[in-house]
Amino acid sequence: QVQLVESGGGLVQAGGSLRLSCAASGSTDSISTMAWYRQAPGKQRELVASVSRAGNTNYADSVKGRFTISRDNTKNTMYLQMNDLKPEDTAVYYCNANRRFLPSQYAYWGQGTQVTVSS
């Protein structure tokens, strides 16, 4: 199994920056694409950004140009650098890791970390 632990969330003013980290442990060789999701109260969970094992990235339109996703396979850690934060970025951010040879419903999830952006 794989365990995912997020860190780096907190309270920040609009226009500020935060860096989230997701540390993976266990059977990390079984991980393929990793991603950050977020969920605000009363809203559906949404994909923020994803990064393949080779480093290919994709972003939601709402965060393009502001957020940068990356991963360090030697450290089994994924990052999300968030700049120019807006109040609408307020949400619980979840680390996600897809499993090789398995569909997305078998993905691993972290416990989430709260990001709050004040206006």
Could you explain the architecture of this structure?
This protein has 119 residues and is mainly β. The protein is built from no helices and 11 strands. The protein has strands spanning 2-7, 10-13, 18-26, 31-39, 46-51, 57-59, 67-72, 77-82, 91-99, 108-109, 113-118. Strands 2, 4, 5, 6, 9, 10 and 11 form a 7-stranded mixed beta sheet that branches. Strand 9 and strand 10 (108-109) form a beta hairpin. It starts with a strand and ends with a strand.
In short:
With 119 residues, the chain is an all-beta fold.
Quantity of strands, as a count: 11
The run of helices and strands is: EEEEEEEEEEE
Number of helices: 0
Helix-strand makeup class: mainly beta
Q: Taking Cα atoms only, what radius of gyration do you get, to the nearest Å?
A: 14 Å
Terminal-residue CA separation: 40 Å
Q: Based on CA inertia axes, which overall geometry fits?
A: globular
How is the biggest beta sheet arranged?
7 strands, mixed
The percentage of residues in β strands lies in over 45%
Average predicted local confidence, pLDDT:
97
Low-confidence stretches: none
Fraction of residues in helices? under 10%
